[in-house]
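Take a look at the protein record below and tell me what you see:
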Amino acid sequence: MVSALNEFDANATGFFDNDLAAAAGAAEGEAWQRLSEGHFTAALLAADLALNLYAELTGKRSGKWHEIQYLRAMLLNRLGRSAEALPIAKSAEEAMSALPDLGPNHPSTLASRYLVALLLGALGRNEEALPIAEDVANVMSVHPDLGPNHQNTLVSRCLVAEILGDLGRNEEALPIAEDVAKAMSAHPDLGSSHPDTLASRYLVAKIVGALGRNEEALPVADTVDDPEIRASGPPAKPPEVEHPSEVALD
């Protein structure tokens, strides 16, 4: 039986429609594909379609519907619409935390909470962002499905270091950023040339420079030749929720 049937609300159709499920899954898959290609406007259009289809299929209180809301908030942020994205990300995180099939420590919920911290930082609300980012990084570090060396955990710790730096707490930020850059370089799925690794390395240079140690900072910064990373800084992107192409079956 499809697990989504247990999540119906007043907005759902009341029965499972295989064609509707296929259409929703296709729209969701298109959104993630366009995101991976950097076509954020097209990805947002596909995510909007998926959101409407899942609302009809499973209702607006299902975990899937809120995961698509997370995706929409991430895309809005990529398009420079952080203020618009923030309430969507907050709503998705709060709803995922309350769902029995997800809960506050599920990787999808943690990714949404990370996005909230990222958006708050982008909006200059770093004092609010820091405890959220630290909580996400700490929970991910001890999570049985993630752990301290998981890519999502490392990206989350990178955000902590960035926020600390933005708050002028560079002495605290530097060892975190250095540890993340080292771990990413040695990570089998990342390595020294991965965008996340380059972003973390550039963050190290930025923090070292802020500490007045420019002779140390410049050689590190010179190893990062990606102008987008230099312009935007870390993290490269928020962790992503699971995004199966079809509604999961029990």
Q: What stands out?
A: The chain is about 65% helix and 0% strand.
